[in-house]
Amino acid sequence: MSPKALDYESLNENVKKVQYAVRGELYLRASELEKEGKKIIFTNVGNPHALGQKPLSFPRQVVALCQAPFLLDDPNVGLIFPADAIAKAKHYLSLTSGGLGAYSDSRGLPGVRKEVAEFIGRRDGYPSDPELIFLTDGASKGVMQILNTIIRGEGDGILVPVPQYPLYSATISLFGGSLVPYYLEETANWGLDINNLRESVAHARSKGITVSIAHAFCLNNKITNLDIFWNSEAVRAMVIINPGNPTGQCLSVANLREILRFCYQENLVLLGDEVYQQNIYQDERPFISARKVMYDMGPPLSNELELVSFHTVSKGYWGECGQRGGYFEMTNIPPKVCSTVDEIYKVASISLSPTVPGQIFVGLMVNPLKPGDISYDQFIRESKGILESLRKRARIMTDGFNSCRNVVCNFTEGAMYSFPQIRLPPKAIEAARRLGKVPDVFYCLKLLEATGISTVPGSGFGQKEGVFHLRTTILPAEEEMPAIMASFKKFNDEFMEQYEDHRGYSRM
Q1: I need a labelling partner for 163 at 20 to 30 A (CA). Which of 105, 112, 470, 494 fits?
Q2: What single string gives the DSSP state of each residue in 114-137?
Q3: Boundaries of each Aminotransferase class I/classII large domain copy (predicted)?
Q4: Phi, psi (5° rounding) for residue 136?
Q5: CA of 127: how far to CAs of 116, 124, 191, 269, 312, in Å?
Q6: 379: number of Cβ within 10 Å
Q7: 163-178: per-residue pLDDT in tens?
């Protein structure tokens, strides 16, 4: 009897290749321990509200009124909700075809897309076209739609920064493409060496289409621990994550110019993952969009380079992960008949429409309160308080990791994560291998069992051979952070004492 369609051996092979470490072995074990009654601190995913961040008052008031529009007819509504929240709710309800329970256009509400375009224009100093903006269920859905459109088969490669957010490796595997890694340099604060990038791609292409570009990267960098690569006939796109996830670095204007020139010369579409643009914890490198830098560079690059940029309400000081609001904007992709835009619209239409409450959150993010509005002062007080606390937590965590034996960590310039390098002693590596575990998975499991701190092993993001990391969010409450770092330090010191024959590991 032949296997049934949902028997494991007959499943789509691309699905079996998908790995997503953020909710992988460590997360599953943490969930088991939590069910057993152990207190777990879930720092494995950037989920601010789950770790105690309070929602911003004004957007929740607006969406509450949109969800229950009958409240607008109550004569006492003004006693509970501020007048500007009432007005804003009426505004967004007027943009829908039947309130939050009705489908919208597959690209999202035209009125909200117009607000996104106006926001982008104010941010960058260059106008944006609402017809080239798609609202999505979080940025991840947009990334998947674009990669699904770009990838034609396993011969198509996507350049992805390593360490990388597993959304990219998982999605590329799911759609049958090839991840082509470019490695960020830890000793240069996770910077990108554009010359190394160019040389690696040139070396691969010089060998012809039967040579794996990813393999060339591995040879050049002596890397062997990533097993998701395939022969790549054509590199089609390049991903940047700015600020970085998991590495937390912010790209400089000079680095962005190099990347844009590279993509133009290599005829690549640039995918700009800019979801952490509000999360900046230093003053030297503020966030500047790839789009603005591209337009500042002028023609022909600004007229011809294809760019897709992503943003979301899940990060920043909003942290509205569960609301699933996001968007992507396409630049230099003309919206004409029988065009790429039409094909992307077809893909979006399969899901009928993005969630409407999420779209309204996007509108509230890009069309914020202004000085003089009734709720403005409260909104600024809440949002600034969140960012100032995150800045403090980034410093507490970085300093805490760097105070630990055999741990080194670059400062979290932006985003929501710390990515320390753990110098695992040879005895620990051997103990892990005897158990059939990747060494940093072994370390993180021991950390989880001892402290309840749930992290993600660096191997889930990609890293150089023989180098080990973990990723943790900086999101636990500020008042809890010293105790969490003290718990980590105690565990780490005991772990190193158990497995280390000698001290004195030097920085990579």
Answers
A1: 494
A2: HHHHHHHHHHHSS---GGGEEEES
A3: 84-474
A4: -140, 165
A5: 11, 8, 30, 20, 20
A6: 19
A7: 988 899 899 999 999 8
